[in-house]
Design a protein that fits this description.
Helix content: over 70%
Number of strands: 0
Mean pLDDT: 87
Number of helices: 17
Low-confidence stretches: 195-207
Structural class: mainly alpha
Oligomer: single chain
CATH architecture of the largest domain: Up-down Bundle
Distance between the termini: 12 Å
Largest sheet: none
């Protein structure tokens, strides 16, 4: 049964503050993909080079995620978040002043470094504040900000068409720097719950100080964490398959224009996912009041719906029904996003939950990159891209089995 102790006074303020930080995090990272024409006109580059701007971000971001999570576990979570926001916002502003491809590439690498520090720390801080039956909904509410930020990435292209590609980076970079001062004034780490482990400050006794080796040993000694890692990686395969190749599929299968296909894939998917994280979070919290495994059962149910939905979207020949399948997939699959950190809290030591999420992030990025590449290889071999979605649907069913096998620790972390 979920912990029913009263929430710390700043619990919902923290979620509200981080909601906007998460929105800026994804808006700043994705808007470069929406301004290809304006950017390549100002700074000549090949299509491969333009793609590399996103790939290098993903590689750096994924590789550094475990270490970024460790920083949040070892030191003050709120300070890591504030530093990350200030750094990536400054780098966003700096990107506007790049004049060569190499300068752009460097700023994207730096963006990967600075943004990697945010998600593990933010989700761990929300979990620290929301120790009972509000944890999944609080996580889902934060994730809704991330999804809205991803959807608003198109603002970058819209601004670029009217005022030049650099203007969007200047606007959102400066906005993030200003907001970092607001967050610095209001954001604090959660008060420690007596008798339970928590992130340790640098002045803590030596036996309590979080070490990277100890964190990894603790995480990988837990069967539940290994199952969660496999589950999150396979789920990343399905998610990246849809994000990476659904626009192409809609473009070719239904003869939609490139712009219409791209908007259809992102708006229907992200719009339904935004609703899904809230539904999945609220439902899991309600179920957890009587059975903690409710946080596992809700994403399981969602995935059992998401698997046939993506098959429907990728096999039907009537566009409205295909889009309906995409909407159902986005909504049901998002149940997992609002419950991943709560599940991680059930199977890991509270001192290492940010590091654990960083490891999950790394694995998901690696699998995602392989999936996108595999889709391209299939196309080069003249195999229909729908095969990628069929494999994604199968991997989702494997995820259900992995989730069902996860068991909470005998004494779950709060």
């Amino acid at each position: 049964m979920a912990n029913s102790s009263p929430l710390p006074s700043r619990a919902w303020l923290v979620v509200g503050l981080l909601w906007l930080v998460g929105l800026l995090n994804y808006l700043d990272r994705v808007m470069i993909t929406t301004m290809r024409g304006s950017l390549t006109e100002a700074i000549p580059m090949t299509d491969a080079q333009f793609g590399l701007l996103t790939s290098v971000f993903l590689w750096v971001y994924g590789l550094l995620s475990p270490f970024a999570g460790f920083l949040a576990d070892r030191f003050n979570r709120s300070r890591v978040i504030i530093g990350s926001l200030f750094a990536w916002s400054g780098i966003t502003w700096l990107t506007a002043h790049a004049t060569t491809f190499n300068e752009l590439l460097i700023t994207r690498m730096l963006m990967g470094v600075s943004e990697a520090c945010y998600i593990p720390a933010a989700l761990a801080l929300i979990a620290d504040y929301h120790r009972g039956s509000t944890r999944s909904f609080a996580t889902g509410l934060h994730m809704s900000g991330i999804m809205l930020g991803s959807s608003l990435g198109g603002l970058g292209g819209w601004i670029a068409e009217r005022q030049g590609w650099a203007h969007a980076f200047e606007i959102f970079g400066l906005a993030g720097v200003v907001y970092a001062f607001v967050v610095a004034f209001l954001l604090r780490d959660a008060p420690r719950d007596p008798g339970t482990p928590s992130p340790i400050s640098a002045t803590a006794p030596a036996r309590d100080v979080v070490g990277l080796g100890a964190a990894m040993t603790s995480l990988f000694s837990q069967r539940g964490f290994i199952l969660a890692l496999a589950y999150w990686g396979l789920l990343g395969l399905a998610g990246w398959a849809v994000v990476g190749w659904m626009p192409t599929y809609l473009n070719e299968h239904f003869r939609l224009s490139q712009g219409t296909a791209g908007l259809s894939a992102t708006i229907y998917l992200n719009g339904s996912a935004l609703l899904g994280v809230l539904i999945g979070g609220a439902w899991a919290d309600r179920w957890s009041r009587t059975n903690e495994r409710g946080r596992i059962y809700v994403p399981m149910i969602g995935l059992l719906v998401a698997s046939p939905a993506i098959l429907l979207a990728s096999t039907i020949n009537w566009l409205p029904l295909a889009l309906a399948g995409l909407v159902i997939f986005g909504l049901a699959r998002a149940f997992s996003d609002s419950n991943m950190m709560p599940i991680l809290c059930m199977v890991t030591d509270a001192r290492y939950r940010a590091t654990g999420y960083g490891v999950l992030n790394l694995f998901s990025c690696v699998v995602g990159g392989i999936t996108i590449y595999a889709g391209g290889a299939l196309r080069d071999a003249h195999i229909d891209v729908s095969r990628v979605f069929q494999f994604a649907a199968f991997s989702i069913l494997v995820c259900v089995t992995l989730l069902f096998s996860i068991r909470a620790k005998a004494k779950p972390s709060v």
